[in-house]
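User: Show me a protein chain along with its predicted structure.
Assistant: Here is one chain, sequence first, then C-alpha cells.
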Amino acid sequence: MAKGPGLYSDIGKRARDLLYKDYHSDQKFSITTISPTGVAITSSGTKKGELFFGDVSTQVKNNNVTADIKVDTGSNLLTTITVNEATPGLKTILSFRVPDQRSGKIELQYLHEYVGICTSVGLTANPIVNFSGVIGTNTLALGSDVSFDTKTGNFTKCNAGVSFTNADLIAAVTLNDKGDSLNASYYHYVTPLTNTAVGAEVTRSLSTNENTLTLGAQHAIDPLTSFKTRFNNSCKASVLVQHEWRPKSTISISAEVDTKAIEKSAKVGLALALKP
C-alpha cells in the first residue's frame, strides 16, 4: 500500500476505476513518438457519431519540470507546467488555455505521511478557490473538498469523505453535492495473481430518494489481456476487453447493452493506443 492518506481525489478512486475507467462508446486512437532529445509528441482523435475531434500534444521534461502543450481542432491551446518536488512532497501545477482568458489556474499539491493537501486558485480578478485536505494514514483517511466563488461569495462545492484500506479491500463513503448525495463504494482484491477484483458503488440522492447501484468485476485472462464487466440497476450491462499487443501499446473494445431493450443495438467503443 502507498504511504500516507493521499489526496481527496484518491478516496474511492480504485472502485471508480474498476467500474468506469476505459469504458466508452466512441472510436479513439492515439499515437505517441519520442524524439532523440526526449520530446514526446502524441496525436489523438475521437469520433463521436458523425463528429471528429483531434489534438496534438507535446511533452518536454527537464529535471523536475514538465511542460505539456496541446492544440486541438477547436483552435484551443492548452499549456500545463508541472514542477515536482520543489520541496519534498510538493507539486506545483500552472495551467492556462488560449484564447480563454479566464482559464488560468495554479494548483499546489502536498503529500505527507499523515496528510494530503490540494489547493487551486483561478488566475482572474474574482477567482474560484478550491481546497481539499485529507488526514490519516494509508489505512484510514478522512477528508473534505470545498470550492468558494469569490465573485458571488458562495460555496460552489462542499464534499466530505472517509476511506478504509487494507491489503485486499478498500471501502469509501462520501457526502457530495452540498450534502444532497451520499455515495458508498467497495473494492475487493480476490486474486492478486490474476488481478481479479470485484467492486460496487451505491449512490443515494437525499432530495429525490433515488438510488443508483453499479456492480463490476475485472480479471486478467493472461499477462497481456484483461477483461472487465459491470451491471447497474438501470439494467445496462457492459463488457470491456483490453489487450497489450506490443509493449505499452493497447487495443480496447467495449460494449454496452440495455437488457430492458435487447432489440436495440449495443453501443460499441474502440480505442487504440500506440506508444514506443
